[in-house]
Amino acid sequence: MGLSRREFSKLGAMGLAGRMLPPVGAEAQGDDRRVGYAVIGLGRIADHFLRGVQQSSKSKITGLVSGHRDKAERIAAQYGVPKSSIYSYDDMDKFRDNKTIDAVYVALPNSMHAEYTIRSAKAGKHVLCEKPMSISVSEAEAMIAACKAANVKLMIAYRLHYEPTTLKAIRMIREGTVGTVQSIISTNGFNIKQGEWRTNKALAGGGPLLDMGIYSLNAARYLTGEEPVSFKAYNSTIDHDGRFDTVEENTSWTMKFPSGILASCSTSYGASMPGFYRVYGSKGWLEVGSFGYQGIRLQASYQSGASGGPNTEIDETNQEKDPMQFTREADHLSECVLRNQTPRSSGEEGLRDMEYIEKIYASA
Amino acid sequence: MGLSRREFSKLGAMGLAGRMLPPVGAEAQGDDRRVGYAVIGLGRIADHFLRGVQQSSKSKITGLVSGHRDKAERIAAQYGVPKSSIYSYDDMDKFRDNKTIDAVYVALPNSMHAEYTIRSAKAGKHVLCEKPMSISVSEAEAMIAACKAANVKLMIAYRLHYEPTTLKAIRMIREGTVGTVQSIISTNGFNIKQGEWRTNKALAGGGPLLDMGIYSLNAARYLTGEEPVSFKAYNSTIDHDGRFDTVEENTSWTMKFPSGILASCSTSYGASMPGFYRVYGSKGWLEVGSFGYQGIRLQASYQSGASGGPNTEIDETNQEKDPMQFTREADHLSECVLRNQTPRSSGEEGLRDMEYIEKIYASA
Lengths: 364, 364
Hints:
Oligomer: homodimer
Structural class of chain A: alpha/beta
Order of helices and strands of chain A: HEHEHEEHEHEHEHHEEEEEEEHH
Helix content of chain A: 25-40%
């Protein structure tokens, strides 16, 4: 099965054209200094990142930005960050002069991603920003422009782009293992608690589509190697218990890709909805789940060889433990910084998802 | 969780308001005679039906209608049908005077369902018609009218309406086992061979939606107990190898139900796509697959009791062997005939699916 120019280009963007996996850990390859990160926002995901960087030989934690000084001092002590490298949101811009901080990890609510990315860029720091990169296309464009103007790298934290099982699934599909792909399904959601910032539209920018559905959206793109050309969607809210006063509870949408592949995705803040995708091809299917921080499982069933040939069954789980995904993610940006390369999950990659999210909402 | 009037009515239609399972087999309950069936069309699915009725104590095979006299005589000998009860498509109407034939099983290509249902009704025979009941709403309406005028029963062969695991899944959802349902996903398809009548629009009436997607469509209805109010769909054809000159290769669609439940379904004639559905609720999820003739598997994972309570995991498979589903299906119509009741999967039930299929195509 030949690859179109677009597919090959996507393959390159995913790092599949060259070696299979991003380098991790001990192989310093001539660069023996570690890239220093300031973590902006000390919530749940920041904890994974902190632990991920702690076990890295390419990256280290050199600063913290938080609205809670006590919490920041406690974490600083834990990770060996000097008190002088703790900043508040107000005085964060001073880290411009802190030479130990090369880059930032933006782990704030979605609506704050743009402001803190742009301020970090203006302070001369490279940016690793959590997904969704922003709450609008225009913000995403401003973030890309700011990083370009400041000559700093911008990477969006699509950690699964660096996860071995995900990369294996993509490679299998590109190699035609399940034949000609026709259809993809994917879900990702959870039953959210009262009072989370994720259900406050001013902070989240939208409902589960931005926070959870983006995994399915992005997966359909890296699985097909194509960009979707059309979207049809529904929103719905079933529970009227105060959680969904400003954002919708459910979104389901279908995307059509240029080749004709159809991808049906569902997300929810009202249901227990484990993350997964399944790719259906002429010779069989392939499934990966969850989208979590560890235990990514690959299952597949396909006819190997000619029609009527024996069936191959695959069921394997990545045994790497959390926070290895965050180590890989940070180290990719660190490598890009050290080698002056463009991150695979660039700002432009994040921008495309924002464009599609706006189209999905427009249809819904 | 209370049931709306619509839900309760649906529950009744599925036979869940009363006893759990349709009676099968030995319990003759005062009716010791078996209902005689003529099978119209001796293809693959007819073989399952013949074997299903053979093991029944309520139903028996008393006639065959086929274009292949040799084949019909061979099957007649196998099932104890006298040669005088073998008919061709041309002279079938003569079975009006054959008192051993109470009902027919229409197992022809989709486009022939209407004609043979109506001719059978006019000959005074009850009708069990394969799904989809027709290739258009207008045909379905004509079939219902013909059976009403002739005062015969019309049942559409939704065999899973009588399958214990499916009924258990429905009951679990109604009882709130997985909490408030938010979202459903379902797939059903296969990679079709060249030359099947199913890819000839004149015979099939459409692509995989009519033949395979109808399982997902119907499942979403019996799972929710609601009727969908809105549809968004895509068709696509990827393979241009002669199979899809008159019908599309893939259809994916989303349905919105009055409660807000969203159901995303995919079907294909180009991919290996095992049939299944998964229902996502506030407390967990439930999955049933396949839609095949045996081995229907129920899996579920849900939080029992109050929030934070322990998780219950279910994984069980109906061990009944093919053709038991067909025994149950035939016996339901036989009971309705003997007791003068309306089949649960009535013509009206089939008509609704035809209405929705037309809406899905209109959106695609």
